[in-house]
Amino acid sequence: MPDFVTSQGMLLLTAVMGYLLGSIPFGVLVTRAMGLGDLRSIGSGNIGATNVLRTGNKGAALATLLLDGGKGAVAVLLARWLVGAEDAAQVAGLAAFLGHLYPVWLGFRGGKGVATFLGLFLALDWRVGACLCLTWLVTAVVTRYSSIAALVAAASAGFWILWLTDGSLLILALVLTVLVYARHWANLTRLKTGTEPRIGQKKA
After folding, report:
1. Upper half-sphere CA count for residue 70 (Cβ side, 13 Å)
2. What separation in angstroms does the CA of 29 have from each of 6, 47, 49, 51, 67?
3. Which of 55, 85, 108, 136 is buried most, with the most CB atoms less than 10 Å from its CB?
4. pLDDT tens-place string over residues 120-140
5. What is the pLDDT of residues 157-166, one digit of tens each?
6. Cα(181)–Cα(196) distance, rounded to whole angstroms?
7. Could you tell me if 148 and 137 are in contact, meaning their C-beta atoms sit under 8 angstroms apart?
8. 3-class SS letters over 57-93
C-alpha cells in the first residue's frame, strides 16, 4: 500500500478524472465509427476488444485494445503528473478500471476491464505491466481462450509485484484481481460446461 500523502480533495479529483477517462466506451465508439453495428448486440454483448474481434474486423479489435489499455495508462500518468504522488496515481488507476466496468454513459453496464487492467499497470510500473501482458499473451496463445488468459494474468499480478517491486501495488492488485474474477464469473461457468468461445469465434 502506498503512503497516503495527497489531500482528500486531490484524491477525489483524480478519482473523478480517472473514472471519466475509464468510462469512455471505446469498443462501442470504434465499432460504430467503422460501421460495424452496435457492439452490445454482437456476440457476448461485451464492449471489450475480444467481442469486437467477433465482428471479424481485427483492426477494430486492435484499436479497442489499445484505447482501452491507453485510458488506464493515461489516468495513472495524468494523476502522477498533476499531483506528483503514487497514492493519487493508484487511485486514478482504480477509478479508471471501475469506470470501464461501470460507465455512466452505458447505464453502468460496461466491460470486464482486462485491457484497462494491463494499461494501468504498465503506467504504474512498466516491469509489472510488461510481465502481465506477457502472461496474458502466452496463456492466450496456448489456450485460445481470452477469459483464461485474463484470469491467469490477473492471478499472477501479486507474484510479479512481490518479485519486482517494494509491494506498494499489492493491495491495488488484489482489489483489481477480485473484480476481474467477479466480472468473469459467467466465463468460468461456461468454461466448466465447455461452452466458452475461443478467441476469434463469432458465436458467444
Report:
1. 11
2. 34, 10, 12, 13, 11
3. 136
4. 999 999 999 999 999 999 999
5. 999 999 999 9
6. 15
7. no
8. CHHHHHHHHHHHHHHHHHHHHHHHHHHCCHHHHHHHH
